[in-house]
Write a structure and sequence with these properties.
By secondary structure, the chain is an alpha+beta fold. Helices cover 21% and strands 15% of the residues. It has a two-stranded parallel sheet. The longest helix is centred in the N-terminal third of the chain and has 11 residues. The chain is flat, with a radius of gyration of 15 Å.
């Protein structure tokens, strides 16, 4: 469960040295299907701690973290008079 982009980068660097290392990436989640966000005999990256939402000072560009859920994103953007096309279900993860 990396909490910074540097941790993601470090982990990818480490597993890239391992021959045939399989991995899966889980954003904030979507469904409850058993095994849907896992991998047998590999590494799972759970991005849920990377859930920051930030807008630049001009209000023209918003960065949405890989672990964000749509409800969090809409709430943040609504408070700034902004919007984005995304999932209808607020519990759905942006990355997935």
């Amino acid at each position: 469960m990396p909490s910074t982009t540097s941790e993601v980068s470090d982990a990818i660097s480490i597993i890239s040295t391992i021959e045939s290392c399989n991995f899966a990436i889980k954003g904030a989640g979507h469904g409850t299907v058993v095994g849907a966000t896992n991998i047998d005999g590999g590494v799972k990256f759970d991005m849920s701690q990377l859930n920051e939402v930030e807008t630049n000072s001009e209000g023209t560009v918003t960065r949405i973290g890989a672990g964000s859920q749509w409800a969090e994103v809409y709430e943040y953007l609504d408070s700034r008079g902004l919007s984005v096309a995304g999932g209808r279900n607020g519990d759905v993860g942006v990355a997935g």
